[in-house]
Structure formats: structure tokens, C-alpha cells
Specification:
InterPro entries: Methyltransf_11 (IPR013216), SAM-dependent_MTases_sf (IPR029063)
Strand content: 25-35%
Protein name: Type 11 methyltransferase
Number of domains: 1
Low-confidence stretches: none
GO molecular function: methyltransferase activity
Largest sheet: 7 strands, mixed
Strand order of the largest sheet: 3-2-1-4-5-7-6
Pfam family, one: Methyltransf_11
CATH topology: Rossmann fold
CATH architecture: 3-Layer(aba) Sandwich
Organism: Paenibacillus woosongensis
């Protein structure tokens, strides 16, 4: 996986993304993850890897300053079409591994299905933490392999094939979070879909 390949994959997949990942169990999981967030007027919110904007509906209509970034221009175009003329949302083409914002810029950072698709998940996680304000929150919705044990054989066999499609089904969220736990409190870590493969993780920046 690399950014150049991911751009090609998501340019090709943008017209079909919502059919696959914003319907059925994915739509239900997104609702479970995002509808109970404690949002306050004026908060600065960053959606990292906004994709086609599947999560925007949980934030539009509220008095928030929303920044939505994605590596793929094709995905951003889809997201912009969902947002319409909402003047409180700005869209930027940007690498989630290199967020061009000052330290502690946002009250809430949303990382929805991004840690499993970036080439370097550890670099991405460092950026998520860096741009989050003290006492701010990071909400992660993504797929992971689970704990420290070995992946099932079928998943180990499928992992390199699935990676060609721009996603990694074998990343360990505990390993991703571990270097940052001195600066983070884990407020929630719960299954969101397909057993415990897809998880909702809510973090507070100390």
C-alpha cells in the first residue's frame, strides 16, 4: 500500500463507495458510533479521511467548525456534493500521515476507516494525537485484527490480496495506541460491527 496506489484505487471506487460502505451494516455501525457524541457549539472538528462524506450527516446542521480532509480528490468531490452550500465545512486534499495543522488545533478528531488504509498507521496515529487539543477527543471507527494473538489462517491468507484493494485487515489497534497512552485516556473501546473486527474507540487527550 502506498499513497499513489491508494489514489488510483479510490478514484476508481468513489462512484461505488457509498453502495458498499454507507449502507446496510456499515450505515448501522456509523450511526452507533457517531450519534451519541457530545458536541458543543463552536467546537472545531476534523474528519480525517472523510472519503465520500458518509459521516457528514452526523455533524451537519450543528454549529461546528468542520474541516474534512482526504487524499483522494474523487472522494472529496463526493463529500462536497453531500455538504451542499454548508459554509461551516472546508474540504482540503491532504495526507492523513502529514496533517498540515498546528499542534492542538481541534476539539474533536474523527478517524473513520483511515488507520487501516494509510501506508503507515503509526505515523497517522501520531498526527491524530498531535492536532487534538488537551481534553479534546479522538473517535476511531475501523477494522483491526484484535488482540495480541495470531490472526486466523484465512485472514492471514487474504491479507495481501485485500491490501491490493487499499486496505489492511490485520492491523493491531493495541499496538497502534500503545506509544501514545501516556497522552491519552481510553474512554471507550467496544465492538461496532462484524463481531469485534470493527471497533469504536474513543480517546481523550490528556
Amino acid at each position: 500500500m502506498n499513497n499513489r496506489w491508494n489514489k488510483l484505487i479510490y478514484r476508481a471506487g468513489a462512484p461505488f463507495y457509498d453502495v458498499l460502505f454507507n449502507a446496510g451494516p456499515f450505515a448501522r455501525a456509523r450511526k452507533k458510533v457517531f450519534t451519541d457524541l457530545a458536541l458543543e457549539p463552536g467546537q472545531r472538528v476534523l474528519l480525517v479521511g472523510v472519503g465520500t462524506g458518509a459521516d457528514l450527516r452526523f455533524f451537519c446542521g450543528k454549529t461546528l467548525e468542520i474541516t474534512a480532509v482526504d487524499l483522494s480528490p474523487a472522494m472529496l468531490a463526493q463529500a462536497k456534493s453531500k455538504a451542499g452550500e454548508n459554509e461551516h465545512i472546508r474540504f482540503l486534499e491532504m495526507d492523513a500521515q502529514d496533517l498540515r495543522f498546528a499542534d492542538q488545533s481541534f476539539d474533536l478528531v474523527i478517524a473513520s476507516l483511515i488507520l487501516s488504509v494509510v501506508p503507515d498507521e503509526h505515523k497517522c496515529m501520531s498526527e491524530l494525537v498531535r492536532v487534538t487539543k488537551e481534553r479534546g477527543s479522538i473517535v476511531i471507527f475501523d477494522k483491526f485484527k484484535g488482540g495480541e494473538g495470531k490472526m486466523p489462517l484465512i485472514m492471514r491468507m487474504l491479507r495481501p490480496l485485500v491490501a491490493v484493494l487499499g486496505t489492511d485487515i490485520g492491523r493491531n489497534y493495541q499496538a497502534i495506541l500503545k506509544p501514545h497512552l501516556e497522552r491519552l485516556n481510553i474512554r471507550e473501546d467496544s465492538p461496532a460491527m462484524f463481531g469485534d473486527m470493527y471497533r469504536k474507540i474513543v480517546l481523550e487527550r490528556k
